[in-house]
Design goal:
By secondary structure, the protein is mainly α. It is built from three helices and three strands.
Length: about 80
C-alpha cells in the first residue's frame, strides 16, 4: 500500500524527510509542498493499484475456468496452482 509520504517525496525531490506534516530538505530547512496535489496523486496511484489487482484476479478466474473446461478435476487444478 502506498502512503502519502511516499507520494510527497516523489512529487518534490528536495524533501528528504517528514515529521508530522512538516517536510524538510537535507539541511533541515522546511520545504513547502502541495498536500492537495499529493492526495490527488495518492488517489490516482491507489486506483491504479486496485485496477491491477482486479485484473489479476479476473485473469486467475478465467484461467481456472479454462482448466475446468478442459476437463481437469478441482484436485488437478489445485495441484497446478499450488493450492
Amino acid at each position: 500500500m502506498i502512503n502519502i509520504h511516499e507520494v510527497i517525496y516523489d512529487l518534490n525531490s528536495s524533501i528528504t524527510h517528514i515529521r508530522g506534516d512538516v517536510a524538510y530538505d537535507k539541511d533541515e530547512n522546511e520545504v513547502s509542498y502541495d498536500m492537495a496535489a499529493a492526495q490527488a496523486k495518492l488517489l490516482e496511484l491507489e486506483a491504479a493499484e486496485s485496477a491491477k489487482e482486479q485484473a489479476q484476479a479476473t485473469a486467475k478466474a478465467s484461467a481456472l475456468a479454462k482448466l475446468a473446461a478442459l476437463g481437469l478435476t478441482q484436485d488437478e487444478i489445485n495441484a497446478l496452482i499450488g493450492a
